[in-house]
From TrEMBL:
The keyword Isomerase does not apply. It comes from Paenibacillus suaedae. Gene3D superfamilies: Homeodomain-like (1.10.10.60), Jelly Rolls (2.60.120.10). This is AraC family transcriptional regulator. Pfam families: AraC_binding, HTH_18. The keyword Metal-binding does not apply. SUPFAM superfamilies: Homeodomain-like, Regulatory protein AraC. GO terms for molecular function: DNA-binding transcription factor activity; sequence-specific DNA binding.
Amino acid sequence: MIRYSDLESSGHASVEMGGEQQNVMMPRIEQIVHGNHPRVTLAHWHSHWEINRVAGGNGLYIINGTQYTIQQGDIVLIPPQQLHRVCGTDQLLLEAFHLETPHQMNGWWAEDMSSVIHRIGQTVPHVLYRSMPQCGLLSEVLMDVKQELAQREFGYVSIVQAQYMRLLTLLSRYASRPLSSYTPAPSRGVQTVKEVIRVMEGQLAFPWTLKKLSDLAHLSPSRFSALFQQTVGTSPLDYLIRLRLTYAAQLLTSSNEKIIEIAAESGFRNLSNFNRLFKDHFQMSPSELRDTNEQLEA
């Protein structure tokens, strides 16, 4: 199964430097409309860092167990390895910029700038609200990066990298200013929850119970359930169901297995229950999803 802790990060551009073609890491941008997209319904983490620009609507972001209300115009900063999930209305639209950390890009400025990313959530808040002047400046940089990547005119790689450096410089300036109104939120227990999620992902067909999951965390069921709810925004068993349904959807669109076999492989022992939960989650039955996918690929 695809681990949502190992999602694809940035892309590469081939450019000529010193008479030779070299691969240069470039940001990857995607638009996410709130719905049943795995990146929306499942908490996840990854090795790159991410900037979300709220292009429309409003919602709730959960990062390392802290909840943030977001609306159009806000910017969300997510450092590497931090557990995050977004919930919102049908009108919520995010533009997600996936970026490598500076030290991965081998720039001369890398060492000087990379530390600011790890200060997000400490001296720099995870969410920059649209009323803050820093938010407007960063939004301008992101829109310029988006335009350059879309048009790909001569020299766009240099402009994108220069804007990335500007973005990190603006964040570094922000981090150097004391903020009496910002207090970092505690993130105790996040690593425990991440380890339990890893085990869930690797053993979806196992007959998990709340007791068995809490044993993995070496906590009582009630304490583990409260920790998981606070960190992820949903109960452990509800998260497990979403994880299983997402895996089932992957199999339905990538294999020829029978639906009853996919249900069992995903951890559902009752086909009618699987069909009901699947339709509630994806607004279509398993067979309808498979048919729709086949039509799109035809």
